[in-house]
Amino acid sequence: MAISTRFKVSHGDVFPHGAYVVSEVEPVRDFEKSTRERPVQAVDKESGLLVWSVSVLDPDPEARKDAKTLTVKISAPHQPIPPEAIAGMPFRPVEFDGLTITPYLNENGGGRPRIAYSLRASGMRAPQVGSAKPTPRTSSAEAA
User: Which residue has the higher pLDDT, 66 or 42?
Assistant: First the structure.
């Protein structure tokens, strides 16, 4: 059985209320290959592309306070460029292409382990006109 550890998801599934870039796009450091004097950028194991990270604000009113800001890693040959700022808005709206989610067990010190998620994308862009708020999904039971 060939089950990937990364599960494909749509931007609207993860960010039903949209997402906003709140940091610069930065290279992800490969801690195993880097030294203090010589940093080495991480390479995606599946695609072989360089890995970049960006912090994103999730404006979902139901999200926990500690889950409002997320990091999305982007695999790309060159540093991705965030969408242009919109006049009058403090943050830049963004949509991610090729979004995947990887669950993992987060064991924070002596605390109780919990399931956490790592988000990866193949690119980012400005939201498409009319897609600022995706249509809520319906389950197959509701559709029947």
Answer: 42
